[in-house]
Design goal:
The complex is a heterodimer of chains A (752) and B (208). Chain A is of the alpha/beta class and 752 residues long. Chain A has 5 domains: 76 residues, no CATH class; 117 residues, Rossmann fold, CATH 3.40.50; 147 residues, Response regulator (Rossmann fold), CATH 3.40.50; 94 residues, Beta-Lactamase (2-Layer Sandwich); 236 residues, Heat Shock Protein 90, CATH 3.30.565.10. Chain A is built from 20 helices and 24 strands. A 5-stranded parallel β-sheet of chain A has the order 2-1-3-4-5, with helices on both faces. The N and C termini of chain A lie far apart (110 Å). With 208 residues, chain B is an alpha/beta fold. Chain B folds into 2 domains: 123 residues, Rossmann fold, CATH 3.40.50.2300; 58 residues, Winged helix-like DNA-binding domain superfamily/Winged helix DNA-binding domain (Arc Repressor Mutant, subunit A), CATH 1.10.10.10. Chain B contains 9 helices and 5 strands; from the N terminus they run βαβαβαβαβααααα. In chain B, strands 2-1-3-4-5 form a 5-stranded parallel β-sheet, with helices on both faces. Classes of the chains: A alpha/beta (752), B alpha/beta (208).
Chain lengths: 752, 208
C-alpha cells in the first residue's frame, strides 16, 4: 500500500471519529445543561493544605484529580484554594509561626467549607496551628500512613490511609515474564523510601524460595544503575520509591525510574503511577490523580450532605490501578493477554495498516454502527436523565408521603386502600397491612357509614373534590374523627385525612365552658330578680288562698251562690296557671340544659323577657317601651340564651337609670330588620351613658361598673351572640344614654 | 247610738288579688271596698264608719308607704294593715314606725287576713268610742268658768281645799262651792274620777 493511500485512510478515519465526537459531545453538553438547572455548591470554598512544596509531580497529579472532580460538582476553580505549606523542608516553630500568620492573612475573611490535607504534617498543622483560622470545617486527610491514629477532636475528619500493595505488582510481573529468576528492588534511603522498601521486603518473603531478591537500597545511585544495566533479561526490576540515595543525593522517583528504564536490560515495574511513560512497564499502582479524583468526589458528597449517616465513621479508600504502558509491553514483547482484566493501558498506538483486512465494508459498518451507537447513546442518556429526574421526583413524593402529619391514602372505588402512609398506623394503631386487608368502610363508625358511602359514590362518579368528616375505628376500639379531602382519578381515590378528634374535643369543651358560664351568669341574673319573681308568684298564691277560703264560706251559707263559687274556681285555676307560668319561665332560664336551637320569633322572646321583669321595672319607676317591628323574619337560635342576652341588656339599662330623674326613666326595646339576612335588636336607655374610655372594655369578662356586678353579663352576651353567628355592640346616644344592639342572621330558606 | 256597719278598704294594683280579697271579706260578713291604686283611694271620701285599710306596699305610681304619709296628713284614723312581699323588710320597718297596725306577708292565710281585719275594725271602733268620750269631756271642760277651771286644776293636783283657798286668796267656803260645781259640770262622781278626766284631757296644775 502506498503512502498516499495510507494517508487517505487516516484522513477518513479522523473525520469519522471527529464527527462522532462532535455529535456525542454536543448532545452530552445539552443533556448536562438540562439536568443541572442549579448548583447548590456554587458558593462553597474548599481549601487544600499540602505539607510539601508545590512542584512534586505526584501531588500535582492529585491536585489535577481534585480540581477536576470539584469542578464537575460545581465548585469553581476560584473557590478552590491550594496551599503548599512546605513544612517538610522547613522544620521548626519559627517557620510555622510565619505560615500561620500568612494563612490568617489569607483566610480570616473567607469561609472555608471543606479542607483537604495532604500528609500527616498538614493535618497536624491544621489542628494545632490553624484551629483558630479554620475552626470547624470538616477535613479529608489524605496520605496518612497505615496505622495512623486520628487526633481526638470534635471536628469531622475523614482519613485516607495509604496501604501500598506491592505483592500485586510482583504477581503481575511474574505472569508477564514467566521465567524470572531474579528480582532487583530499587529504593531510596529517605524515610518514605525506606518505609516502602521495608514493606516490599516483608511482602516478597513468600517468593523467597522461588526467586532471588536483590535489594539495592544501600547502594549509591550510580552503582544501582550499574547493577541493573548488567542484569540479564530473565530478571525484572521493581522500583518502590526514591527521593534520596545512600550518599544523600536527592533524586525523584520519576527521574530514577526513567534512568533505570534507560539502562536496564530487564523490564522495570513500579508502584507509583508517576513513573508511567518514563520507560517502565507498569504494575498495580498507586494513582495520585485517582486519589485526587476520589477525594474530590467525597468532598462533594460531604458538602451536599447526602450520602453518609452521621454515626458511621467514614474512610476514604482508593484502590490501586493496574496500569501499563503499551509501548513497553511491545518493547519487551510481553503479552497483553497476560494482564489482569480491567487493566488500564496507556500510550496505545493503533496501526491502521493492521486494519486493511477489514476493508471498506468494515469501515462502512463501523460508520453506520457508530452513528447508531451515537444515536442510542444520546437517547440512552436522555432516557437516563429523564429516569433520574423521575426517580428523584418519585423519591421526593415518597418522602412527603411519609413525613406528612395527615393521613394520606390512595384507595379504589371498590372500597379498598391501595397505599397508606405511616400516619395511618400512628393514628389508628392498625398496621397498614391490616388496614388494606379489609374494605375501608369496615373501619368507619356505623353512624357515619351513609355519608361515607355517599362520598365514595360521588367520587366514583368523578365529582371533583369532596370534603366531609367521619369517624374511623382504632385498634383499641375507640374512634377518631377524620376530616377528608378527596379527589377521584379513574377508579382511584386520592385522599388526605386529618385527625380532628382533639380539635373537636377542644371545641366541645369550649362550648361546654360557655354553656356553664352562661348558666352561672343566668343564675346570678335571676338572683338579682328574686324580689320581683317572688312577687310574681306570691300574687296568684295570695289570690288562690283567699278565693278558696271565700268559696268554702259561700258554700256553707244557707243558700250558696253556686255561680259565684264557679267564678271563684275559674279564678283559682287562672291564678294557679299564672304562678306555674312564672315558675316555668324562671326554671327555663335557670335550668342547666343542652342548648336547643329552634325557630323563633324574636319579638315573642322579647315579650316573654319583659313580662318577667315588668314588675321589677315598675318598682323602680321605669317604663319599658317596646317598639317591635311586625316585619321580623324567623331566626334559628337557643331561646334561653337569647333571652338571657335581652334580659341582661335591659337590666344593664335599668341599672344605668337608677339615679336618673323620673322623666328619663325609660328603656326602649326595638326590633328591626337590619337587612334581608339579619335581624337587629337594640336596647336604648337615657341614663348616664358609657365612659368613652371604657367602651372597648365593655365586653371583657369581669368588667363592671355596678357595685355588686359580676362583670360577666356583657361578656357572656357577646359569647352567646357570636356563637349564633351575630355581632353585638354598644354606643352612646347623641341625646344621652347608651344603646346596646345585636344582630342575628335570619333562618335561610324553608323553616320547616 | 246604733252600731254602724264597718267597711274594709283594699288597695292593690293586682286585679285578681283585689277580687279574691273582696270575696273573702264579703263571705266573712265584711263590707269590702276595693281600689286599684293609691290615687283612686285618695280621691275617695270614706264615710264616718269604723273600718280598716288593707294596703299593698308595692304598687306602681304612689306606693303603699307614700299613701300612708298622705293619709297621715289628712288625719286619717283607720288602722292600716300592709301587705308585704319578699324582701321588703326596710319598707315594713318604715311603715311600722309610721303607725301601721299589722303586716301580712304574701302569700298569707285567709285566717290571718280575717283576724287582722277584725282586730283592725275593733281597734278602730275603740278609737272612735274613745274619741267620742274625749269630745264630751272637752265640751264639759268648755262649760267651766275661768275660776272653776283654776279650782279644777288645783284640786286634781291633790291640794286640800284650804291650800287652794290660800293659793287663790279666797275663802275655803267659796272653794267648796266651786268644787261642787266643777264636779257637777264635769259629770264626775268622785274626786278620783275627776282626776282621771283631768289626766285624759291632759290637765296638769301649773303651780304643782
Amino acid at each position: 500500500m502506498s503512502v498516499a493511500r495510507r494517508n487517505r485512510w487516516i484522513t477518513l478515519c479522523y473525520l469519522l471519529c471527529f464527527s462522532i465526537l462532535l455529535t456525542y459531545g454536543a448532545c452530552a453538553c445539552l443533556a448536562q445543561a438540562q439536568t443541572q438547572p442549579q448548583n447548590p455548591l456554587a458558593e462553597k470554598n474548599v481549601l487544600i493544605l499540602n505539607a510539601f512544596e508545590s512542584n512534586i509531580p505526584s501531588f500535582e497529579k492529585t491536585n489535577q484529580g481534585l480540581s477536576a472532580a470539584l469542578r464537575s460538582g460545581g465548585i469553581d476553580i476560584r473557590n478552590q484554594f491550594y496551599e503548599h505549606l512546605d513544612l517538610v523542608r522547613n522544620p521548626g516553630p519559627e517557620y510555622r509561626k510565619h505560615m500561620v500568620a500568612l494563612m490568617r492573612r489569607r483566610y480570616v475573611q473567607r469561609k472555608i467549607d471543606f479542607i483537604i490535607t495532604l500528609f500527616p504534617e498538614a493535618l497536624r498543622f491544621l489542628l494545632d496551628d490553624g484551629q483558630a483560622i479554620f475552626p470547624d470545617a470538616p477535613v479529608l486527610a489524605l496520605y496518612l500512613p497505615e496505622g495512623f491514629e486520628l487526633p481526638k477532636t470534635k471536628r469531622q475528619i475523614i482519613p485516607h490511609l495509604i496501604i501500598p500493595d506491592l505483592k500485586r505488582t510482583l504477581e503481575i510481573a511474574l505472569n508477564l515474564v514467566p521465567k524470572v529468576k531474579r528480582v532487583y528492588v530499587v529504593s531510596g534511603t529517605h524515610p518514605l523510601d525506606r518505609w516502602l522498601d521495608d514493606k516490599a521486603r516483608q511482602d516478597f518473603q513468600k517468593w523467597e524460595g522461588r526467586l532471588k531478591f536483590r535489594y539495592l537500597r544501600d547502594l549509591p545511585i550510580e552503582e544501582i544503575l550499574a547493577t541493573v544495566s548488567g542484569a540479564p533479561s530473565d530478571n525484572i526490576v521493581l522500583i518502590t520509591a526514591f527521593s534520596q540515595d545512600r550518599t544523600g543525593k536527592y533524586q525523584t522517583t520519576v527521574e530514577v525510574g526513567r534512568e533505570l528504564a534507560r539502562v536496564s536490560e530487564a523490564p522495570v515495574f513500579g508502584f507509583l503511577d508517576t513513573l508511567l511513560g518514563g520507560g517502565i512497564v507498569g504494575g498495580s499502582m498507586i494513582s495520585f490523580e485517582f486519589i485526587g479524583t476520589k477525594a474530590g468526589e467525597m468532598a462533594l458528597d460531604i458538602l451536599r450532605g447526602t450520602r453518609y449517616a452521621e454515626n458511621i465513621p467514614i474512610v476514604l479508600e482508593v484502590p490501586q490501578l493496574d496500569t501499563f504502558d503499551w509501548r513497553q509491553l511491545k518493547h519487551w514483547n510481553l503479552s497483553e493477554s497476560a494482564l489482569p482484566t480491567g487493566s488500564i493501558i496507556i500510550n496505545r498506538e493503533f496501526s491502521l495498516w493492521d486494519l486493511k483486512y477489514y476493508g471498506i465494508g468494515a469501515l462502512a459498518f463501523i460508520l453506520a454502527q457508530s452513528l447508531l451507537i451515537a444515536g442510542l447513546l444520546v437517547q440512552k442518556r436522555r432516557r437516563r436523565s429523564a429516569e433520574e429526574s423521575l426517580r428523584q421526583k418519585s423519591e421526593e413524593l415518597d418522602q412527603f408521603f411519609n413525613v406528612s402529619l395527615d393521613l394520606l391514602c390512595i384507595a379504589n372505588t371498590d372500597g379498598y386502600f391501595l397505599l397508606l402512609n405511616q400516619t395511618w398506623e400512628r393514628t389508628l394503631g392498625y398496621s397498614r397491612e391490616e388496614l388494606m386487608a379489609k374494605r375501608f368502610l369496615d373501619f368507619v363508625h356505623p353512624d357515619d357509614l351513609v355519608k361515607t358511602q355517599d362520598a365514595v359514590s360521588s367520587l366514583a362518579s368523578q365529582q371533583k373534590v369532596i370534603y366531609f368528616e367521619n369517624r374511623y375505628r382504632c385498634k383499641d376500639g375507640t374512634y377518631r374523627w377524620l376530616e377528608w379531602s378527596s379527589a377521584p382519578a379513574g377508579n382511584l381515590i386520592y385522599a388526605s385525612a386529618r385527625d380532628i378528634t382533639e380539635r373537636l374535643k377542644a371545641e366541645a369543651e369550649a362550648r361546654q365552658h360557655r354553656e356553664e358560664l352562661a348558666h352561672v351568669t343566668r343564675i346570678a341574673t335571676m338572683g338579682e330578680l328574686t324580689t320581683s319573681l317572688a312577687h310574681e308568684i306570691n300574687q296568684p298564691l295570695t289570690a288562690i288562698e283567699s278565693n278558696a277560703e271565700a268559696a268554702k264560706r259561700f258554700l256553707s251559707q244557707d243558700a250558696p251562690d253556686i255561680s259565684e263559687v264557679g267564678q271563684i274556681l275559674e279564678d283559682i285555676i287562672r291564678d294557679d296557671r299564672r304562678a306555674s307560668d312564672v315558675i316555668r319561665k324562671v326554671r327555663d332560664l335557670v335550668r342547666k340544659e343542652k342548648p336547643r336551637e329552634e325557630y323563633l320569633e324574636i319579638n315573642k322572646s322579647i315579650q316573654e323577657v319583659v313580662a318577667i321583669i315588668w314588675d321589677e321595672s315598675l318598682l323602680q319607676g321605669l317604663s319599658i317601651i317596646m317598639e317591635l317591628s311586625p316585619e321580623m323574619k324567623e331566626i334559628h337560635a337557643d331561646r334561653i340564651q337569647l333571652q338571657q342576652v335581652i334580659l341582661n341588656l335591659i337590666l344593664n339599662s335599668a341599672a344605668a337609670l337608677r339615679n336618673a330623674p323620673q322623666a328619663q326613666r325609660k328603656i326602649i326595646v326595638r326590633t328591626a330588620m337590619q337587612d334581608d339576612r339579619n335581624v337587629k335588636v337594640s336596647v336604648t336607655d337615657f341614663g348616664t351613658g358609657i365612659d368613652e374610655n371604657n367602651i372597648k372594655h365593655l365586653f371583657e369578662p369581669f368588667y363592671t361598673t355596678k357595685p355588686k356586678g359580676l362583670g360577666m353579663g356583657l361578656s357572656i352576651s357577646q359569647t352567646i351572640i357570636q356563637a349564633h353567628g351575630g355581632t353585638i355592640e354598644a354606643s352612646n346616644n347623641p341625646e344621652g344614654g347608651a344603646t346596646f344592639s345585636f344582630t342575628l342572621p335570619v333562618q335561610q330558606g324553608d323553616a320547616s | 247610738m246604733t252600731e254602724e256597719k264597718p267597711v274594709v278598704y283594699v288597695v292593690d294594683d293586682d286585679p285578681s288579688v283585689r277580687k279574691a280579697l273582696e270575696r273573702s271579706l264579703s263571705s266573712a260578713g265584711h263590707e269590702a271596698k276595693t281600689f286599684a291604686s293609691a290615687a283612686e283611694f285618695l280621691d275617695f271620701t270614706c264615710p264616718d264608719t269604723p273600718g280598716c285599710l288593707i294596703l299593698d306596699i308595692k304598687m306602681p305610681g304612689l306606693n303603699g308607704l307614700e299613701l300612708q304619709d298622705r293619709l297621715a296628713e289628712k288625719n286619717f284614723t283607720f288602722p292600716i294593715i300592709f301587705m308585704t312581699g319578699h324582701g321588703t323588710v326596710p319598707a315594713s320597718v318604715k311603715a311600722f314606725k309610721a303607725g301601721a297596725m299589722d303586716f301580712l306577708q304574701k302569700p298569707f292565710k285567709d285566717r290571718e287576713l280575717l283576724n287582722a281585719v277584725s282586730t283592725g275594725i275593733e281597734k278602730h271602733r275603740r278609737q272612735r268610742k274613745e274619741h267620742k268620750k274625749m269630745e264630751i269631756l272637752r265640751a264639759r271642760l268648755d262649760t267651766l268658768t275661768p275660776r272653776e277651771r283654776e279650782v279644777f286644776e288645783l284640786v286634781v293636783s291633790g291640794m286640800l281645799n284650804k291650800q287652794v283657798a290660800f293659793d287663790l286668796e279666797i275663802t275655803e267656803r267659796t272653794i267648796k262651792a266651786h268644787r261642787a260645781r266643777v264636779m257637777e259640770k264635769m259629770g264626775a262622781q268622785s274626786l278620783q274620777e275627776l282626776v282621771r278626766f283631768a289626766e285624759r284631757l291632759g290637765i296638769r296644775s301649773s303651780t304643782a
